Amino acid sequence: MDSINPILLIASLMVASTPILLAALGEMVVEKAGVLNLGVEGMMITGAVVGFAIGVNSGSSVLGFACAALAGAALSMIFAFITQVLLSNQVATGLGLTLFGLGLSSLIGKPYVGIKAPGFAKLDIPLLSDIPVLGPILFRHDPMVYLSLLIVAAVWYLLTYTRAGLILRAVGENHSAAHALGYKVVRVRFAAIAFGGAMAGLGGAYVSLVRVPQWVEGMTAGAGWIALAIVVFASWRPWRILLGAYLFGGITVLQLNLQAAGSSIPVEYLSMSPYLVTILVLVIISVRGNHGAPGSLGRVFHASQ
What we know:
Keywords: Cell membrane, Membrane, Transmembrane, Transmembrane helix. It is a multi-pass membrane protein. Pfam families: BPD_transp_2 (PF02653). By secondary structure, the chain is mainly α. The protein is built from twelve helices and no strands. Helix 2 (40-58) crosses helix 10 and helix 6 crosses helix 7. The radius of gyration is 19 Å and the shape is globular. The chain starts with 5 loop residues before the first helix and ends in a 17-residue tail after the last helix.
C-alpha cells in the first residue's frame, strides 16, 4: 500500500468538513428554536445545483454562493409555512422537502453535467502559509473554510451573550411560556428556519463549486443526514458541532485516501465507514439520552396556547 501524506490528509479534512459544518450549524439554530427540519439534504442539494448553475453562467463563484444561500432559504420557507402556519407534522414535511429538493436538483442540473465550475481562489496568508507543517494545514484554504469557522464563533456568541439568542432559546425551550411573555414565536422560528436553509444552501454550493468541483446528480451523498446526526452528537453546542463535523470529515477523507493508496480493505467497507460511524454515534447518544435537546423540539405551536 502506498504511503499517505499526513499533512495533505489533515488539510483535506478541513475542506471535506466545511459543507457538513455549515449545514449542521444551520440545523442547530433551527432546532434551538424548537423546530426539527429533516429537509437538510434537500436544501443542500438545491444549493449545490443553484450555486453551480449561477457560478457557471456568471463566471463568479461568489455570486454562486450567494444565490445558493438564497435558494436554500427559499426552500426552507416552504417548510416554515407548512409547519408553522398550516401546522403540519415537521418530520413528514422535512422528509418531503428532501425528496422535493432531490427531484428539483436533478431537473435543474441536467444541462450542467460534465461542465467545470469556475475557479475559487485559495487564500495563501502571507508569512503564516510558509510555516512548515502548520502553513499547508491551516493557512492555505479558500475563504469559505475560514468563513465557516467565523460563523461557528458568531453563532456561539449570539446564542450565549445576546438578547436575540436568549429569545431564540426561550422559544425552543418552552414556546407557550415565550408566547405568554409576548415573544413572536412563529416569527422567531421563521427567521431560524431561513438561516438554517441558507446555511444548508452554502454547504451544498461548497460541494459543487469547491470540493468536487462539477455537477453530479445526488452529489451531497447523505451529507445532510450526517449534519443532522452531528447536531445531536454535539448536544446542540456550536463548538462541539465543529469537532463533530471535523470528525466525520476526517473519516471521509481517510477512507478516500486509503482507497487511493490501494488499501487491502474492500472499497465497499471504506465507503460505508462514515455512515457506520454516524449510526454508532446515534446509538451511543440514544443510550445516554438527548441531554441538551430543546424542550419544545418538534412540537407544534398553536397561537391560542
